[in-house]
Write a structure and sequence with these properties.
By secondary structure, this protein is mainly alpha-helical. It is built from 13 helices and no strands. It comes from Larkinella knui. This is CDP-alcohol phosphatidyltransferase family protein.
Length: about 325
């Protein structure tokens, strides 16, 4: 379940702390401008420090959860100066969230548990934020019905984040292979889950069940993509042809901007705006009526790309991607 691959030199060596900034990034195709110019440089410095003193990625992720939840709590108050402190805490939490992935790549210390924690961290932040905004809105005169858009927006956020993360990893899988991607599939996860018992592996099985459900959610929104991945894994198990890699990158890269829009930066910039004008409730409706249509458009376009390459690979006449 929690397989870790470490570099022989270990996370604390000086060699690892000198790892270039660019090597700690996932891919230029999937990185957002704000991340490149702001969060990633901060995360890189945090990652270098952690590597130097021997701190591993998972503790960094866990610390980020505390900062993010604290930020959400501070959004409950109507005093702007308290909200600003919350904004700074949320920015720092996201810097830590950036740092844990950069540290994992810097030290070659990656694990599935780390991936699960990384995804769960953001959910904890926004659960705190949604609860705080609902309670704040009730204090401002809203009825308990404010919890309806609060919950709907929360569910929307989970799906948006799940699909954005999934599509990014699919893109990385095609352009970098398994070494540069964290792409999992429910079939393999189900086998691992079935090997665990509730009596002997309660904690592991609970985490495995949660992650299996999360992966099935991602797959349920992308049926054409599942067909493409299945035929690619079957036909190109020795490696993807370079022509397929190049063609997929060209056709799929424009969709990466939508994964960025529905992720952290856009929603948080607007959240801060609503807090500054003391109308935090607008955040729920922004999530539901602005980000959800972008999610739908992103899924439809990605399914079109997947259908295109599935037909090209499976057509005997049009197959331009022979096996290696």
């Amino acid at each position: 379940m929690n397989t870790v691959t470490k570099s022989p030199s270990g996370p604390e060596t000086a060699e690892n702390t000198r790892t270039s900034f660019e090597s700690t990034l996932k891919s230029s195709d999937t990185e957002e401008t704000i991340d490149i110019w702001f969060y990633r440089p901060i995360g890189y410095q945090i990652a270098r420090f952690c590597a130097r003193v021997g701190i591993t990625p998972n503790p960094v992720t866990i610390v980020s959860i505390f900062f993010g939840v604290a930020a959400g709590i501070l959004f409950y108050y109507q005093e702007l100066w308290i909200n600003v402190i919350g904004m700074l805490l949320l920015v720092f939490a996201n810097s830590l969230d950036s740092a844990d992935g950069q540290l994992a790549r810097m030290t070659n210390n990656k694990s599935r548990l780390g991936r699960i924690l990384d995804g769960a961290a953001g959910d904890f932040w926004f659960i705190s934020i949604h609860i705080a905004i609902c309670l704040r809105s009730q204090n401002e005169g809203w009825s308990a019905l404010i919890w309806v858009p609060g919950v709907v927006a929360g569910i929307s956020h989970v799906i948006q984040s799940a699909m954005a993360d999934y599509y990014r990893n699919v893109h990385l899988f095609f352009i970098k292979g398994t070494s540069g991607s964290e792409l999992d599939n429910s079939r393999d996860l189900q086998k691992e889950y079935d090997q665990l018992t509730w009596g002997r592996h309660f904690g592991q099985k609970l985490v495995a069940r949660t992650y299996l459900n999360y992966t099935k959610l991602q797959e349920s929104f992308s049926p054409n993509l599942q067909k493409l991945l299945a035929v690619v894994r079957q036909k190109y198990h020795l490696g993807l042809p370079q022509t397929l890699v190049d063609d997929f990158r060209v056709k799929n890269r424009p969709l990466m901007k939508y994964t960025n829009i529905i992720q952290f930066n856009t929603r948080v910039l607007f959240l801060f705006l609503w807090l500054f004008i003391d109308q935090a409730w607008i955040y729920f409706f922004f999530d539901i009526f602005v980000l959800n249509p972008i999610l739908i458009y992103m899924c439809v376009k990605q399914e079109g790309v997947s259908r295109h390459f599935y037909q090209k690979i499976t057509s005997e006449r049009e197959n331009q991607y022979p096996t290696l």
